[in-house]
Amino acid sequence: RVLITGGLGQLGVGLAKLLRKRFGKYNVILSDIRKPPSDVFHSGPFIYADILDYKNLREIVVNNRITWLVHYSALLSAIGEANVSLARSVNITGLHNILDIAAEHGLRLFVPSTIGAFGPTSPRNPTPDLCVQRPRTIYGVSKVHAELMGEYYHHRYGLDFRCLRYPGIISADSAVGGGTTDYAVQIFHDAFKSGKFECNLKPDTRLPMMYIDDCLRATLEVMEAPTDTLSMRTYNINAMSFTPEELTQELQKQMPELEVTYHIDPVRQAIADSWPMNFDDSNARKDWSWKHDYDLPELVQTMLNYFGTDACVARAN
Ligand code: VAH
Q1: How far does the centroid of ligand 1 lie from the alpha carbon of residue 211, in Å?
Q2: Fewer Cβ atoms within 10 A, N terminus or C terminus of the chain?
């Protein structure tokens, strides 16, 4: 049985759908500290789980015979900078609880890391799996800590820890919250709503990005990879890198009326300028045959299909 923490964030509901298709509806339990929308509640098992409450977590793992844990609870980059103490307790103390429970009960544990686990002194173009990691956000620092602690528990206690460094994830049917890459999701919502978008990063800010379906498939693939194929426990995964300008141009091929202006958010710009521009994921491609499906044109086409291109063009006129 799989437990997903932080399940009501950008990725949890999509991952639950994928894993339920694979393992059966009642073998994947979604959890969060918020009340789920009714459609989520009725789509499969949901329970309240607070990763800061060790006893609550242990009860859930034992009573539901959990064998895999996907740990999605975290405060992301920009929101973490606005609340460092909460980010530290959720992203670090919460992670410690998860590690102890996973080791104690022999769970297979997936914890996502991020392009944000690198900093201004990391090589940025491209950024390899193994290099200097001195991130400048509490989010990045907490994710480097998660990588190091997960690998320590793997080598010291035999914990089956698996970790992927996600690029900025683009999704149509889930809201984003508190990230630096969120502009690349918001542009679609605003293009559909009003035909106008105000971007909070500079037009030439290049960041690694990935469509959500690729991200969730990579997560399932690495969780199912035979242990002896994993030469590492933490892998970069990559699909594409683009700038707001390139994304806008691709979008305007289908929506020429789309108007994009720029109003830079200095906090998010400073974070983006410290992150990788291109990700080297050759180890993931070598060890467990990682391959992305969505490049920029496919991403834009898929997102527009979701929002309904005709409606977009009509509204943008
Ligand atoms: C953020 N979307 O911007 C998240 C993610 C790689 C970016 O971690 O903080």
Answers
A1: 13
A2: C
Using one digit for the tens of pLDDT, what is the confidence trace for 267-296?
A: 999 999 999 999 999 999 999 999 999 999
For residue 179, which of 4, 10, 8 has the smallest C-alpha distance? 10
* 79 SS3 class: helix
Q: Which residue has the tokens 């670090």?
A: 92
Rounded CA-CA distance 150/147 in Å is 5
For residue 44, give the nearest of 63, 64, 61 by alpha carbon: 64
Of 77, 127, 133, 210, best ligand 1 pocket probe by most atoms within 8 Å of the beta carbon: 77
- Kindly give the number of the ligand 1 atom that is closest to the alpha carbon of 181: 3
Distance 104 CA to ligand 1 centre (A): 30
d(CA 56, CA 49): 7
| DSSP-based three-state secondary structure for 215 | helix
Ligand 1 atom nearest to 176, measured from its CA: 2
Q: Is 187 in the pocket of ligand 1 (CB under 6 A)?
A: no
Nearest atom, ligand 1, residue 143 CA: 8
Angle at which helix 244-252 crosses helix 183-193, to 10 degrees, equals 30
| Nearest in space to 235 (alpha carbons), one of 118, 125, 129 | 129
Is the backbone peptide bond immediately before 123 cis, with ω within 30 degrees of 0?
Answer: no
Write down the pTM of the prediction: 0.95
Going from the Cα of 181 to the center of ligand 1, the distance in angstroms, rounded, reads 6
Question: pLDDT tens digit string along 93-146?
Answer: 999 999 999 999 999 999 999 999 999 999 999 999 999 999 999 999 999 999
